[in-house]
Amino acid sequence: MTPTVSATNPQKRILHAAADLFAQVGFNGASTRDIARLASVNDATVYRHFSSKKDLFAAVIEAELQKLRVRADLLVHVANVEDVRAALCVIFELLTEALAGQPRLLRLLQFSVLEFGSALQPLYQKYLGELLEGAAAYLESWRPRDALLCENPRAMVVAFAVTVVGLQTLYPLFGGKQLALRPVRDSAADCVDLWHAVLASTNRGK
Questions:
Q1: 131 CB-near residues (< 8 Å, 6+ apart)
Q2: Are 88 and 195 in contact (CB under 8 A)?
Q3: What CA–CA distance (Å, rounded) separates 135 from 131?
Q4: What is the CATH number of the domain that holds 38?
Q5: Single pTM value for the model
Q6: Measured on CA atoms in the order 193, 195, 198, 199, is the torsion positive or negative?
Q7: Could you report the per-residue pLDDT of 148-190, keeping only the tens digit for each?
Q8: Does residue 85 sit in the same domain as residue 34?
């Protein structure tokens, strides 16, 4: 029987072990000794592949970001909708499909922001920038028609992404049930209605 790559490749085992541990306890809570033990290697092997624990953490984040997949049919749907509310629903669904399906990545991103601030921002931009900027550019096209009650579409898309991440973390605490039990489209519609109400209220106050 041929051994699997993960079983024979120490670097992949280290990355996998580090991803699990960093997602559980964060960067500061994980030690390279524990990571080495989980990966069945010694400490020297960890540092042979990664120059520092921070370098390993960045490699873990990048490896998880590389797993993001955006459904092509949703991208097509965004371009073909006929009203801004439907566009917002699809964009929220797009972000949910990309982010909510990666619970380990969400935990890693939360820890990275708490422990590193914006230090890893270039890495986020590399993998998430195209998705966010593409959605923002599409929403920008609605502004001349006064269909979008928002002066900064990019900020709105980022707020949507933050909402997706926050829902995965906080919904079980306040919603009374796991978010996963609700269809993605229903959650998207609820959040779009909320943002529409907030934006409309803000614009009426001007």
A1: 68, 70, 94, 95, 98
A2: yes
A3: 6
A4: 1.10.10.60
A5: 0.72
A6: negative
A7: 666 777 887 787 777 777 766 666 666 555 555 455 556 666 6
A8: no
